[in-house]
Design goal:
Blueprint lengths: L3 E7 L3 E8 L4 E8 L11 E2 L1 H18 L7 E8 L5 E4 L9 E2 L7 H9 L3 H8 L8 H11 L3 H6 L3 E4 L1 H9 L6 E3 H4 L5 E2 L4 E2 L1 H6 L9 E3 L7 E4 L2 E10 H8 L8 E5 L3 E8 L10 E5 L7 E8 L4 H8 L9 H6 L9 E3 L17 E3 L7 H27 L6 E4 L6 H11 L3 E4 L4 H13 L6 H5 L4 E5 L5 H18 L7
Parallel strand pairs: 1-5, 5-14, 9-12, 15-21, 21-22
Antiparallel strand pairs: 1-2, 2-3, 4-7, 6-8, 10-11, 13-14, 15-16, 16-18, 17-18, 19-20, 22-23
Bound molecules: adenosine-5'-diphosphate (ADP) and SN-glycerol-3-phosphate (G3P).
Keywords: ATP-binding, Glycerol metabolism, Kinase, Nucleotide-binding, Transferase
GO molecular function, one term: glycerol kinase activity
Subunit structure: Homotetramer and homodimer (in equilibrium).
């Protein structure tokens, strides 16, 4: 009997595969980190072949570890780092350039031109986004401009574009399927989120040939099959990792929200079947929906979340493990007035400043390593607090609780500080691999392993609730200090 679902979670820093059974228990998993490439200041790339090989490798490792017969696998669900842009040759499957990662700022000047040309409103109205180097559209333009002959080849139909989901689908189906799902399409800055089609105006402005774009499909459904040891296994779900996490957290009803603390932080709130247009710096995006219905979400994206801890570990050598941050932060009872704005790749929502850069302010002769570590952790919560504030202004409704997940949500100090700064309960579920779980749900619903979202909702279990304790006065003082620190980091890298 088919009893397993394999979720492939291709993230920014690692590829993971998790095998779930029908009762949503993790049967086996495997994970592999891959190199981050920083060819110039502000640029971030991945090797697309490495993304695929690490993802394929961990899938096979998890299947082997779990002692699973491929014939028992009901379906594969894919979830992925979003916006990251890959262009490859249709005939050979060879990428023509490294993957330009969502964090990469190289197209900031092109985004400035789009703004200067008066396209901001069109982009907002049609795609739900803001003109920013974060999204895929200008990254495609950059590749077509910088790889010799690429524009002509793309126009002749010889090149294909895809976000990481499309690339994995293409590779896993051995070049048979060139498709993406609506959630990933909604992050390209080329997709009309109401008409559910590529937007002709933006394609023309950016001279992107329609023939290189993938077919856009519902997140739960048919993405071809992958042959594992002679067995054709349906790829039955695909969604961007943040939308998958929203789904995995069972935020199926309008008003339900989650925040994922991974490399970045991504706060998404389900807003139902009508897109909610933000007036406070958030974007409108498509959430993973079912049964042909399109569900929308408001999203706030923070570019550097857990990555600030990684930076303290790898570049500053302040920590030997990311998990040590919690210990050091609690060795001091405050940051001693230090604020850390980790705007390493600019600031995302709600500031959208591609030229902001990192700042550590308030340092005195008494500042110790522990203060800086604590300030780094607090910065993750402050940035998320800014998103909640924007969301509450947009919806006019205070957030009742925040569901959390992602690598850095393990950090209890951070979660408590988050609850304190939001004055809202923060709830961490038993299964923290909600991104992979969301992908498994989407695939499992498509092949009939589960029948409806209510069945899934009944399974959501809270592990820890962090309740707010901070006084309103302290909260306000912290909030003011943070706002002042952010002001110091804005516009830093803009050339005179
Ligand atoms: N205990 C911890 N405390 C704080 N940050 C952590 C902790 N564990 C992991 N992280 C951070 O979380 C991130 C990894 O989370 P993960 O969800 O695996 O990310 P991604 O999916 O973006 O690759 C890293 O940036 C790491 O620094
Ligand atoms: O890989 P993650 O978990 O950091 O997520 C990356 C986001 O999808 C970028 O938008």
């Amino acid at each position: 009997m088919k009893k397993y679902l394999v979720a492939l979670d291709q993230g920014t820093t690692s590829s993971r595969a998790i095998v779930f059974d029908r009762s949503q228990q993790i049967v086996a998993s495997a994970q592999k980190e891959f190199p981050q490439l920083y060819p110039q200041a502000g640029w971030v790339e991945h090797d697309p072949l490495e993304l695929y090989s690490s993802q394929y490798g961990v899938m096979m490792e998890a299947i082997t570890r779990g002692g699973i017969d491929p014939a028992e696998i009901a379906a594969i669900g894919i979830t992925n780092q979003r916006e990251t842009t890959i262009v490859w040759e249709k005939a050979t499957g060879r990428p023509i350039y490294p993957a330009i990662v969502w964090q990469c700022r190289r197209t900031a000047a092109l985004c400035d031109r789009l703004r200067a040309d008066g396209l901001t409103e069109h982009i907002r109205a049609v795609t739900g986004l803001v003109p920013d180097a974060y999204f895929s559209a200008t990254k495609i333009r950059w590749i077509l401009d910088h790889v010799p002959g690429a524009q002509e080849r793309a126009e002749r139909g010889e090149l294909l574009f895809g976000t990481v989901d499309s690339w994995l689908v293409w590779k896993l189906t051995r070049g048979r399927v060139h498709a993406t799902d609506v959630t990933n399409a909604s992050r390209t800055m080329l997709f009309d989120i109401r008409r559910l089609d590529w937007d002709e105006t933006l394609l023309q402005v950016l001279r992107i040939p329609r023939c290189m774009l993938p077919d856009v499909r519902p997140s739960s459904g048919d993405f071809g099959t992958c042959n594992i040891q002679g067995v054709e296994i349906p790829i039955a779900g695909a969604a961007g990792d943040q939308q998958a996490a929203l789904f995995g957290q069972c935020c199926f009803a309008p008003g339900e929200a989650k925040n994922t603390y991974g490399t970045g932080c991504f706060l998404l709130m389900n807003t139902g079947e009508t897109p909610c247009v933000s007036r406070h710096g958030l974007v409108t995006t498509i959430a993973a929906g079912l049964g042909g219905h399109v569900t929308y979400a408001l999203e706030g994206s923070v570019f550097v979340g857990g990555a600030v801890i990684q930076w303290l570990r790898d570049e500053m050598r302040f920590l030997s493990e990311a998990s040590d941050a919690e210990y050091y932060a609690q060795k001091v009872d405050s940051t001693g007035g230090v604020y850390f704005v980790p705007a390493f790749t600019g600031l995302g929502a709600p500031y959208w400043d591609m030229y902001a850069r990192g700042a550590i302010v308030g340092i005195t002769r008494g500042t110790k390593r522990e203060h800086i570590i604590r300030a780094a952790q607090e910065s993750i919560a402050y940035q998320s607090m800014d998103l909640v504030a924007a969301m509450e202004k947009d919806t006019g409704v205070p957030l009742r609780e925040l569901r959390v997940d992602g690598g850095a949500s393990r950090d209890a100090f951070l979660m408590q500080f988050q609850a304190d700064m939001l004055a809202t309960p923060v709830r961490r579920p038993v299964i923290r691999e909600t991104t992979a779980l969301g992908a498994a749900y989407l695939a499992g619903l498509a092949v009939g392993i589960w029948h409806d979202p209510d069945e899934l909702r009944r399974q959501w279990r809270c592990d820890v609730s962090f309740l707010p304790h901070m006084t309103a006065e302290q909260r306000e003082k912290n909030r003011r200090g943070w706002a002042k620190a952010v002001g110091r980091s804005l516009d830093w890298a803009k050339e005179e």
